[in-house]
Amino acid sequence: MSSDRLMRIHSAEFQAMAERVLRVTELTSRLNVLPFEDEAGKADLLEQILGKPLPSRVTIYPPFYTDHGLNLDLAERVFINQNCTFLDYAGIRVGERVMVGPKATFITVGHPVDPEERRGWLTGAPIDVAENVWIGAGATILPGVSIGRDAVVAAGAVVADDVPPASLVTGTKATVHRRW
């Protein structure tokens, strides 16, 4: 995992982040129980979550989850289906005309692999999704990944490496890389 960001868990920065996460959790909880037709209520809550108005041609079907919101940058004509999660600690940029299938997960945060450091630090790296990408249902995008223009991420894929433009990626293969 790429780790562009490193934060000590027992720090003032972490405490401020934890407070934001609690606030956004409360806001997304409210968003996810609104009547579907309450466009004004959804727009107000999404503005509080994202820290700015949602672009006019973005569609988000609830339930929708994010932990910060302020680090989630959605371009015009983005479609996000139901039950998607955006853990945006290190930043997520989603380009124009991106389609995100249901239950897709974007994760920019993690912990060091070293067992002695794991409980003391957060690591993070941004995710960048270029224009006209399709993320299939149940796909997981891991920290530090860039997805090129016109790419397709198949349903259920786990993406740990960059995706070239105009390509299809599939699969969930996990392998042992190291032992301790």
UniProtKB/TrEMBL annotation:
GO terms for cellular component: cytosol. Keywords: Acyltransferase, Repeat, Transferase. It holds the Pfam family Hexapep. GO terms for molecular function: O-acyltransferase activity. SUPFAM superfamilies: Trimeric LpxA-like enzymes. The keyword Secreted does not apply. Belongs to the transferase hexapeptide repeat family. This is Acetyltransferase (Isoleucine patch superfamily). It comes from Micromonospora eburnea.
